[in-house]
Amino acid sequence: QVQLVESGGGLVQAGGSLRLSCAGTGSIFSRIYSMGWYRQAPGKERELVAAINPFGATYYLEPVKGRFAVSKEEGSHTLHLQMNNLKVDDTAMYYCAATAGARLKPSSNYWGQGTQVTVSS
């Protein structure tokens, strides 16, 4: 069984920073795997914000490039998302995701419970 436990969300003013963390346990982590962060705002589709593949390559959603940084701790299955210069439009529920293999796929991802990020103006 795969478990993803998130932490680090909260309320912050625009321009501020937050750091999300996701600790993963379970069978997929004994092989190659990908991890990432999705977000979903009320009334909107869930979107992939940032991801890292087994080879260390990263992906970022265009609006967060230069502001967010995804990283994985060496020797563990913990994923971080450093979010700087937060904007009101970043307000959403953020979900950690993981999958076996080299690419995240919403249909086969494992999901965390979500952590709320709220940015006030």
Strand content range: over 45%
H and E string? EEEEEEEEEEE
What's the helix count?
0
Strand elements, count: 11
Summarize the structure.
The chain is mainly beta and 121 residues long. It is 0% helix and 51% strand.
Describe this structure in words.
The chain is an all-beta fold and 121 residues long. It is built from no helices and 11 strands. Strands 2, 4, 5, 6, 9, 10 and 11 form a 7-stranded mixed β-sheet that branches. A 4-stranded antiparallel β-sheet has the order 1-3-8-7, with no helix packed on it. A hairpin with a 5-residue loop joins strand 5 and strand 6.
Features of this protein?
single chain; 121 residues; mainly beta; seven-stranded mixed beta sheet; four-stranded antiparallel beta sheet; 11 strands; 0% helix
